[in-house]
Amino acid sequence: MSKSFELPKDFLLGSATAATQIEGGDIYNNWYAWSLIGKVGNGESSITGADHYRRYAEDIELLSQLHQECYRMSIEWSRIEPKQGEWSKEGVEHYRDEFQRLIKAGIKPLVTLHHFSCPQWFQEKGGWLSENAVEDFIRFVDFSVKSFGDLVSEWCTINEPNVFANDSYMDGKYPPGSHGDIAAYMKVTKRLVIAHLKSYKLIHKIRKEHGFAGETKVGFAHHLAIFEPFDSHPLAKLGRFLSDYLFHEIHMKGFVEGKLCFPLGFGYPEGKGIFCDFIGINYYSRHLFKASYNPGNLFATPMVDPSISDSEKNDLGWEIYPEGLYKVCHRAWDKYKLPIYITENGIPDAKDEKREKYIVDHLYQIKLLLDEGVKVERYYHWSFLDNLEWNDGYGPRFGLVEVDYTTMKRKPRLSALRYAEICRTKRIENRST
Ligand code: BGC
């Protein structure tokens, strides 16, 4: 039996990227320094990217041809403030032109201010562990919103604060490469919460004071995964609970409600209120938690369900689990009743064999949510272009559009053409499962 369904005409469909992963050419950010010491997969470097910094006009035309209605991108802090306190006119002009072109093409920009990277000068001061971290970041936010706020009304303050702090201070994958430093994880998480709360207020204030047109919308992009106990072992359940609390929950409370929870602290540092106009959800996969007697692992080790076949995994071995999108959205909605944007959802699939079905199956979960009155308003597929997958280098192919890294030629994959039709018609024909 074929199943067809439609999404509402005002539901926006598009795609997402991040500056460090696609732009190339910037020597002032900390991922370039990280590449230089061989920390990116296969000795690769962020200096390459997909050459988007020079090809952005061509890429916007491609976005338009693919009927993308909205586009989530980030601005590279180090291009705006390459040295502390020195603001780059060139950087500002570049991004202004990029936003203008997007708007002219009828594509709504959602702009991320912090997507895992920072200027190397900020990293050298200690990054988010430095005493002035929040202050430094807020200065950048202030400058950016004053420089771009007439063109950009929608802002995402911080991308995946949980993944960022975990991979930088617990797993040693992102700069500064610390391992198991739980104190740093907490300290940085608390600072990211405070930076978001202050940014939320500041962005609204600046856009209002300047009379910038368009409704100001500010949120963050939270990485929410499905965590389940592997079996009924009490430690599996305890470990799942602790990881869920420390990886998902304390961020929700902080970023949305403005509340610092144990062990971050107590109380409301910026007052009580709601500090998100939308909740951005980045959803990819499910993890099972297997009992472990190691308290350093929070009593359980995350793993991929051993019973699933290769056809249910992506090129990086992550489980493809569309129902999880329904679950994470429902949980956020039930608690906060705030509009939800799927700020990321995608698949590394070099052969492009699974992407179309992946998109359709996840959109179907959104349709189920909409039918139940859950206000999901946007879907940004990750990613528009093939890009630098952080430590994994350029191997994983997340792009709707394939990039040939020798010639930098772009080629929309078949799944991109199918997705473009969905964006145009809001209609999904013949869902096969
Ligand atoms: C990040 C992206 C990344 C994607 C796939 C998210 O964690 O925000 O930068 O490329 O997942 O791993």
TrEMBL record:
Record-level GO BP terms: carbohydrate metabolic process
Keywords, ordered alphabetically: Glycosidase, Hydrolase
GO molecular function list: beta-glucosidase activity
Pfam families in the cross-refs: Glyco_hydro_1
Keyword set includes Hydrolase: yes
Keyword Hydrolase part of the UniProt annotation: yes
UniProt family annotation: Belongs to the glycosyl hydrolase 1 family.
Name of the protein in question: Beta-glucosidase
Source organism per UniProt: Leptospira hartskeerlii
